[in-house]
User: What shape does this take?
Amino acid sequence: MITYCPSCHTHFRVHAEQLAARAGQVRCGKCSRVFDALDHLIEETSPAPAARPKPEFVATPADAADVELAPELVSRETPESRAETPEAAMLLEPENIEPVTTVGASAFSFESVASAEPARPMRRWPWLLGALLLLLTLVAQVAYRYRTAVTLLFPEVKPYAAVMCVSLGCELPLPRRIEMMSIEASDLQADTINPSVMVLSATLKNRASFNQQHPLLELTLTDTQDQPVVRRVLAPQDYLGKTVNTQAGFAATAEIAIKVFIEGSQIKATGYRLYLFYP
Assistant: This one.
């Protein structure tokens, strides 16, 4: 027969002789709880494993002298203590009585149970392929947006960029680094032949090591108070002439001398300002 402690749920194998000796009252050898073993019997559902050879525990009557000499005995009752303590019980020691496998709620484990079907490994290559395509798309967009700067950093790719622009219907504009452009000299004087015409003379220089787009010139005529009287913007065709091919750009480290004739008979100007810019 198997009984268990209702307090700590330790299970013990007991015999009918043991239970009959103390009317079923036993004391748990683990938590010292006194309980009725008959009320906590468990039906054995499978043959118990063979127990190691152990001395058979037999509860025998003992007097007070025997109790003092043999404290290892299960019962420590005396006639006096039996009269004073109605709950005298037989001590169940796990090492003296064969424990059995715990059954019931304490035997359950709440660990996760492995699935019978093995988990399929996650396929990573579709994600890697998608990330690679997104990266290539981003690189292509950046290269298209800054195609002029890319051709400056890598001149060897300029022919390929030109072919790409032809197929995409875009343009490959020349660089426009205004900080690399300068006006080396300028002058505004009345024409010696026709005093009503003013002649603007200037020297422009591209200080970059690459060809650039020709800049625009803004000419502002001022009065004696340095206030603007008239302003005019000169395109490359205005100061270079219509016969000059501006598509080739302003050559690297080159200078251009320009001369522009301006009708000024109706303009009362005493000074001017000239600067270049890109739209």
